[in-house]
Amino acid sequence: MFEPSLYQPLGNHLAVARNGTTQSQVQFSTEYPVTRIETIADGTINFGKVGYLAAPAEGYELQPGDILYSHINSIKHVGKVAQYFGEKKTLYHGMNLLLLRLDDEVDKRYLFHYLNNHNARHYAQKECQKAINQVSLNTGQLKKLSVFTPPLSEQRLIAHILDALDTQIQKTEALITKLEKVKEGLLHDLLTRGIDENGRLRPSPEQAPELYKESPLGLIPRQWEVKRLGGLIDGIDAGWSPSCSDVVPKEGEWGVLKVSAISTGAYLPHKSKTLPEGLSPIKEIEVNSGDVICVRANGVAELVGRTAYVFSTPRRLMLSDKTLRLRAGEGLDPLFLFLLMGSASTRKQIASFISGSSGQKNLSQNQINSIQVKAPSIEEQRRVAGALSSMASRIEKEKSARDSSATLKAGLMGDLLTGRVRVTPLLEKAQATSPA
Fold first, then answer.
1. Which of 89, 128, 208, 341 registers the highest number of CB atoms within 10 A of its CB?
2. Does domain 8-148 have CATH number 3.40.50.300?
3. DSSP state of 187
């Protein structure tokens, strides 16, 4: 329920609102770190992206609870905030970020969350003064921002709820990062040692040199061979790039993948464009589950040859002209083919094909066919692919949990920070169950 009496201008709760020190920064580290615009780029105080002063800037030391506000930036980033918790003994407030120091009538974490929500960011983008390369929001305009300010007890409970979700999201992010590193190490072992008939990684060459042999790609298990990729795939399908509107196709509409749908190494079907009315689709290049798709051409050399495996996909998406589909033959597992395309030896060969070229880098079908790859038996390929698939599934499960928490948080921010949903019943329940 909207309660106008609980909305107040932000300026009513600011003890300090000012820009930072104009003292010149030096090009070397000192004991006087100072904030810069990029210090808060990710919504936290990043001490790896601070500047340094030659001497202290008296009166500009940040205090725990201070909020840094990006008031001069691109339209996309204006209104970003981060909060200082006193992580470092001293951090000075630099230019081009506003310092917001709050009075005691508002909870510091609550106001941080309020400034970090969609409505506050939208206000900054709407009220800022626009120039050619950047925008700016003056302090006076920022102070006019209308803030929902329920009683302090309610503010603290809202902040506690949102902080708990932040903690949960951060822990899940940390676990995902850890699992990604484990996956990277596992991938290396799988493509150098493989998995024996008992479902176990073979001992390393140092532990059991008799299990390995020399090859053009270095030591490989004795049961493996080195073959040309062209002898293992059934063919390569090229795509099509008609002129399309940059709009993601709706369900049932035909679309064409962008290169960015593949170039991260993960299949991202939402990176696609809608096929215009009047153009007939080429059904033969529709993307299907189980496809292995690689980047044929790109201006960035590192992205050429980047490959994604299609675990699942919406219907009616087609390959673009700058992508290729590699069709695995009977003796090649498609998921193992995906792993081979991302291996260090394959990446090295692709780099040699495109070295020296300028501008757009291209990978030809003949070059792909000539790539030398490690070739275990189809049974072992499936064991290797299965091991990696299990790890990938766990990572995706954690990513889904993270995204669910982020969605829940966004919904709660929209409800709790506007008064649309009040936490008063929770407070009343807590008070009723507390001992007298």
1. 341
2. no
3. H
Given a cut of 90, is residue 352 above it in pLDDT? yes
Structure tokens at 173: 């992010």
Residue tagged 């929770």 (tokens): 426
Distances (CA, A) of 107 to 67, 116, 126: 12, 14, 26
Domain 225-374, second-level architecture: Alpha-Beta Complex (3.90)
3-state secondary structure string, 262-284? CCCCCCCCCCEEECCCCCCCCHH
CA distance 162 to 184: 33
C-alpha dist (Å) from residue 414 to 28, 82, 196, 309, 331: 43, 19, 53, 37, 54
Q: What is the DSSP letter of 19?
A: -
The residue type found at 279 is L
How does the average pLDDT of the chain come out, rounded? 93
Closest C-alpha to 384, from 191, 167, 124: 191
pLDDT at position 340 over 90: yes
| DSSP-derived pairing of the beta strands 255-257 and 317-318 | parallel
